[in-house]
Design brief:
The chain is mainly beta and 199 residues long. It contains two helices and 13 strands.
Length: 199
């Protein structure tokens, strides 16, 4: 598997964050791996928003089997979108079977005038637009402003037709911001958000 990823991504170093499977009928299901970082080494890389993958089928004994070459499937540049003010990389992807689409999370951890800043953005792309490699749509809040998570959005789950679960992994940042009355979380706690989506 590592050799297949090496060939598809094409750099000595990369970090995989996110895995999604779009089921199919007769070998046309798609397994996708999210790429967050790629470059020459762990200290010499660029943040990216890229997916590599391959079509798959489930064999009669229940194993997953690739039926074509693992390859680059989709990529986009968050900084090209108005309202994205931080360099970020892909942190999660999740298939939405209710709306035939794919949700993407991007997150950032930067320093601005020696102040550490973390956060994230949410994107959605229909399966049709994904196949055509069209740009994803940046999700906005009820006021029409770009939705910016105040925590480092790292995990995503589709709960039903309209609800998403977003989990945060803030690493060493213990602040809770507006999520809780407390100033800091315990090291064993992970903040999260339930989002109600509208079309």
């Amino acid at each position: 598997m590592r050799a297949k990823l090496d060939a598809a991504i094409g750099t000595p170093y990369y970090k995989i964050e996110g895995l999604a499977a779009i089921p199919g009928e007769h070998g046309d299901g798609l397994l996708m791996f999210g790429v967050r970082e790629q470059g020459n080494a762990h200290d010499d890389f660029d943040y990216v928003c890229r997916m590599v993958g391959a079509h798959y089928r489930i064999t009669s004994d229940g194993n997953l089997e690739f039926i074509d070459e693992l390859r680059s499937l989709y990529a986009f540049d968050p900084s090209a979108h108005a309202g994205v003010n931080h360099t970020c990389g892909l942190s999660s992807l999740e298939y939405d079977p209710y709306n035939a689409s794919l949700y993407l999370l991007t997150s950032f951890e930067t320093e601005d005038e020696d102040i550490a800043r973390i956060g994230g953005y949410l994107w959605v792309v229909s399966l049709q637009d994904l196949a055509a490699e069209r740009e994803p749509q940046l999700v906005c809040d009820e006021q029409g402003e770009v939705l910016v998570f105040e925590h480092k959005a790292e995990g995503l789950a589709v709960l039903d037709e309209t609800r998403l679960f977003v989990a945060y992994d803030n690493d060493r940042h213990l602040g809770l911001g507006s999520i809780d009355e407390r100033d800091e979380r315990h090291a064993c706690e992970a903040p999260f958000t339930l989002l109600a989506m509208s079309q």
